[in-house]
Write a structure and sequence with these properties.
By secondary structure, the chain is an all-alpha fold. The chain has one domain. 69% of the residues lie in helices and 0% in strands. The longest helix is centred in the last third of the chain and has 29 residues. The relative contact order is 0.14.
Length: 213
């Protein structure tokens, strides 16, 4: 696949995801249920905003340069791990947790953000040309955002009478032991996915001059 085709697909994906989020927000505003503090506290929403930036920047890079930069590829590696975890958590734990009564949100924007965009992000990592190999020392970047988000979410829950973005983070659901188990499991998952992405970049880097030690 040529870099120009990759660039066009990335730009379309970024714009498409932005439009999807705008429609989801508009749906909530029209139905008078939009709470910005709640909406923008979700891991999915915040990482979707990251994905928009990564798609657009990646599209421009693909159209203008023969290869992506190491900095961009590092960020892309981290957002790849977030996307896979987002898809996994949604489909395994949260898909059937929608409200049984009251406001019924549009279903397809959630599917786009939790299913189709993660699939596209994975495919982009696997097949797009021009990705430099990453050094193993860059694996730690994967945890910077999740740790910050977790600290914010737990603090917000503590000061807002138990309002947590996801039930598995609420100690009132199954206790702190369950919360800690989920945190450890997801952290291991993120690091594992980041390690796999780095290994793939090092194994399949086509230009040896791009490889870091």
């Amino acid at each position: 696949m040529s870099r120009r085709v990759v660039g066009a697909i990335r730009l379309l994906a970024g714009v498409g995801l932005l439009v999807t989020m705008a429609i989801q927000i508009a749906d909530r505003v029209v139905n008078n249920v939009f709470d910005p503090w709640e909406y923008f506290s979700y891991f999915t929403i915040e990482t979707s905003l990251m994905n928009i930036v990564v798609f657009v920047v990646g599209g421009v890079l693909a159209l203008r340069r023969p290869s992506d930069t190491v900095l961009f590829t590092t960020v892309r590696m981290a957002t790849l791990a977030y996307a896979i975890v987002t898809a996994g958590v949604y489909n395994l734990l949260l898909r059937d947790d929608g409200p049984s009564e009251g406001f019924q949100a549009l279903g397809w924007p959630s599917e786009v953000m939790h299913v189709w965009m993660p699939l596209l992000i994975v495919l982009d990592w696997l097949v797009s040309p021009g990705r430099p190999a990453l050094a193993w020392r860059r694996l730690g970047v994967v945890m910077i955002y999740p740790v910050a988000w977790l600290a914010y979410s737990l603090l917000r829950g503590a000061v807002s009478n138990g309002i947590y973005p996801y039930p598995f983070l609420d100690p009132a659901t199954d206790g702190w032991g369950s919360v800690i188990a989920y945190i450890v499991g997801l952290s291991v998952g993120l690091l594992g996915l980041g390690a796999l992405a780095i290994a793939y970049s090092r194994r399949f880097a086509r230009d040896a001059s791009l490889r870091q030690s």
